[in-house]
Amino acid sequence: MRPIALLALLCAAAIAPLGCGPKHHKPVPPRLGMPEISAGMEKLRPAVHRCYEKHKVEGHAQATVRIEADGRVSEVSLAGKFKGTPSGACVIAVVKTARFDRFKNGPIVIQYPLLLR
């Protein structure tokens, strides 16, 4: 029997370990919860710290972040002393790299504090 015919026969027999059946994907939730948002933003901590190391400006940056339903960040703005500064531009560039799980009811806009030190 040819290998392709054998694979088709095994799939027809529903032998799951071969990965023949439909792919089971994690269900897409309606919204991102705070645990998912915090996890995604925490991954940025080392890169945000590099912004501090580069510009040596310490403080809190309040980020307003728009997260699209596909999990990408489409817009970021900062309030306070980092707005319009080189440090702020660095932080904005970092936050735009964040990726989150997909969700159904998007986009969402969040406010998230970032500490530079």
Quick description:
Helices cover 34% and strands 21% of the residues.
Can you describe what's shown?
The chain is α+β, with helices and mostly antiparallel strands. The chain has one domain (25-116): TolA/TonB C-terminal domain (2-Layer Sandwich), CATH 3.30.2420. It contains four helices and three strands, in the order αααββαβ. The protein has helices at 3-12, 34-42, 45-55, 86-95; strands at residues 59-67, 73-79, 108-116. Strands 2-1-3 form a three-stranded antiparallel β-sheet, with helices on one face. A hairpin with a 5-residue loop joins β1 (59-67) and β2. α3 (45-55) packs antiparallel against α4 (86-95). The radius of gyration is 22 Å and the shape is elongated. Mean pLDDT is 86; it is low at 3-11.
The tally of beta strands, per DSSP, is 3
**Could you give a short account of the major beta sheet?**
3 strands, antiparallel
Mean pLDDT: 86
Query: What would CATH call the class?
Result: Alpha Beta
> Beta-sheet strand percentage?
15-25%
Query: Helicity range of the residues?
Result: 25-40%
What order do the strands of the largest sheet run in, or round the barrel if closed? 2-1-3
CATH homologous superfamily caption: TonB
Unreliable residue runs = 3-11
Key terms for this structure?
single chain; TolA/TonB C-terminal domain; 117 residues; disordered N terminus; elongated
How do the helices and strands line up, and which of them pair or pack?
Elements: H1 3-12, H2 34-42, H3 45-55, E1 59-67, E2 73-79, H4 86-95, E3 108-116
Antiparallel strand pairs: 1-2, 1-3
Helix pairs in contact: 3-4
